[in-house]
Amino acid sequence: MDYQEIAKESVGYLYKAHRSIRTTGLEVQLIALAELRTSQLNGCAYCCAYHANELREMGLAVALIDQLPGWRLATGFDLRQQLVLEWTEVVTTRPADFKSYYPLLLEHFTEKELAELTTSISLMNALNRLRMTLGNH
C-alpha cells in the first residue's frame, strides 16, 4: 500500500516533524543513532538500512554501526552516545522505572535536547510501524 500517497497530508506532517527535529541543535548524528537503534528494536529492515547508510555518510565509524546491536558490550561509544542508546531502548520499550533515567540524562543533556531526542525516538517508532504494517514489502 502506498500509505505515503494515500495519507499524504498526515504522513507529510510526520516527515516534516522528522526534518524539524534535525534543526534543533541536538547533534544530528545522535538523532540518527537513536533512529537506527529504534528501527533495530522494531525490526524495520528498510529503516535500518536507511539510517545505517546515513550514519556512514555522517562519518560514524562502520565498526560502531556494526556493533550497535551489542552496544552495551562495545567500547567505542562515547558517554552521550551510550545515553542516547539507553534512552532509545527505554522510550521504545517503556519499562516501569523509566523516570529513574532522568537525573543521569539531565546531567549530560539539556531539557530541550532530551525533549527533542524523546520526540525523535517516539516519531521513529511511529514511522517504523507505518512502514512495517502498510509499506510495500
What would you say this structure looks like, in words?
The protein is mainly alpha-helical. It has a single domain (3-131), classed as AhpD-like (Up-down Bundle), CATH 1.20.1290. The protein is built from eight helices and no strands. The chain has helices spanning 3-6, 8-21, 28-42, 45-57, 62-67, 79-93, 102-108, 111-134. Helix 3 (28-42) runs antiparallel to helix 4, helix 3 (28-42) crosses helix 6 (79-93) and helix 3 (28-42) packs parallel to helix 8 (111-134). The chain starts with a helix and ends with a helix. The mean pLDDT is 95. Residues 23-89 form the Carboxymuconolactone decarboxylase-like domain. Pfam families: CMD. It comes from Chitinophaga nivalis. This is Carboxymuconolactone decarboxylase family protein.
